[in-house]
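re: that complex we talked abt at group meeting.

here r the seqs, copy pasted straight from the sheet so there may be weird spacing, ignore it
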Amino acid sequence: MNELPQQLVNGLLLGSMYGLVAIGYTMVYGIVQLINFAHGEIFMTGAFGALTVYLYILPDGTSMWLALPLMLVGAVMVSVTVAVGAERFAYRPLRTAPRLAPLITAIGLSLALQQAVWAWYPEADSPITFPEIEGGPFEIGSVTIQTGDVFLLIAAPISMAILAYFVMKTRTGRGMQATAQDPDTAKLMGINTDRIIVVAFALGAAFAAVGGVAYGLKYGEINFRMGFILGLKAFTAAVLGGIGNIYGAMIGGLVLGLAETLATAYIADVPGMEQLGGQTWANVWAFVLLILVLLFRPQGLLGERVADRA
Amino acid sequence: MPGKGLLIVRQRSLIAITAALAAGALTLTACGSRDDDGGSDSGSDGTTVVIGVDAPLTGDLSALGLGIKNSVDLAAKTANKEKTVEGITFKVEALDDQAQPSSGQQNAVKFVADKDVIGAVGPLNSSVAESMQKVFDDAKLVQVSPANTGPTLTQGTDWQNKKVRTYKSYFRTATTDAIQGPFAAQYVYNDAKKKKVFVIDDKKTYGAGLAATFTGEFKKLGGKVVGTQHIDPDSKDFSAVATQVKSSGADVVYYGGEYPQAGPLSKQIKAAGSKIPVVGGDGIFDPTFIQLAGKDSTGDLATSVGAPVEDLPSAKEFVANYKAAGYKEDFAAYGGYSYDSAWAIIEAVKKVVEDNDGKLPDDARAKVTEAVQGVSFDGVTGKVSFDEYGDTTNKQLTVYSVEGGAWKPVKSGTYTG
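got the structure back, here u go
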């Protein structure tokens, strides 16, 4: 059996999830030059938000087709609240501080959010099962697509299209572009930059929430630490694609997901490389790829060469 | 049913009476010993010693870790209640290692520094044990693990050719992977009639060791290894591996590792279209595995050390006492072994105290370590004693299978070369 088509689909699915989370990193960085390391935890709280809706708000036995939209709303609400709260109380007071201060704050916030969920969410000290969509997997040729992955397949491109429309066509979106180019001038032109920054955080959080729900559906379980590794991967994807560029985040995610999957599946087959193959080495190969890309295109795949404003 | 109500009332009053009696007895004996002593020597006047527990109490493996902690606690309470060692009160102090070798070592240092600690039970993970052994050995503080199965811990790195005991203070009540892996291989090949295996491990001390001993025996029996893969324990996405399993044509998967990864791995392998059993060691033998793997996990197999605790006549009392003590968490896979580990220390303390005219000697730690080597008693899991390497002499193993959402014992036996 030729497994390549299936591995490509595996990689694209994993990459779509990285991409959804990477958008939040890239948008916040594009506008305030902050690497929001708490973004992985915003993704995690989104998944827990969706679970809360399912477990505690909806009556038992609600069909997933009905529950899913409501769970999404719950996930987005929780993630956006956390992100906007973080912006207001953790990052805004430090906006004029040296850049390292908000960076350290972000790492601290990341730990605090993990521990808060661990301590206060019922039974969150061990993995919690996430509801699944009924129905068997779909077979297309030699490729099997899981029911839980269908959500990701639909949600990722739609989210991307909505984001592109928003940033390009709406007044707020153009305000975001202006703020990203030059916040001071944007302010002089009458753009409420404080509001734009909040919108950037909120939008990034909403995408992370969609990613969180997709994660739960795909793997069938969530836990309080799920945001840490995924957040790092998404950040890597954002850098790979060109941090600050929203399309770059998605492309970076897809490239990273494909690289990891293909490295897992095929590196060990290369003669003499048995010891360097397998999933334990997939991260190494993904980062080798990142270094190579950054050597030749320091701005990332789709990034623009901009002078550092620091 | 009136009978049922009556029974409850009766039990309740029984508990109340027992509690009152126990409280009364404790008060009386406390008074008594104080009177006897007359203040001449405070050494024998209810000396309190601490049994340390090191296990993952939070995180993915906490289900197993909390079972260990509670079972040791139960052993200490039983010893105190029955006054197993005259004049000694046992206290349990549990530290969380989060399954991290670095945390385990810090905990070991803490136990060594606390002069009241007379011995330690734990850890869960072989990789954590590696980081603790030297610390304990330098302090001559005895350590009994209920769960470590890595052969190198007792028999040295070259255990396949030349067995050398590295640390005299390390003992375990769990059977090693040197026995567990081959035992699984024999079951899979001879009983389950599976001939083509895909071997996966997590590259940790426990997982890689188990996978290696399984593979060796499986090949010897005539089975074929159609693929190998090493997963990243931090990842939850095993879709690439699952696809490989499917295209390899394997009829069984062996996984060396623990349930936080094994559960999702089993689920994703089945989802990818391979309806074949996943087999693992005691690291996947936990209800959480079934919860994570979902309903398709029916038919998955796990080997675990010893006979099923619930079925052993010697364990009935333990199970009943554990329930009566009202612990919030289940005693899990290692409860019986943890109880026996703690009891080995208690027995050793008893011997040391009795040899020293009812008092704890000054070099109690070294003496207790020596005494553990010689203990022999009927524990929860059967006869508890240790061989010249510190390994248990009990070589019993059991294969469990997932049926109806729970682990059901399939076959018990001992591995013979």
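couple things i noticed - The domain at 47-175+309-386 of chain B is CATH 3.40.50.2300 (Rossmann fold). Confidence is low (pLDDT under 50) at residues 1-10, 26-44 of chain B.
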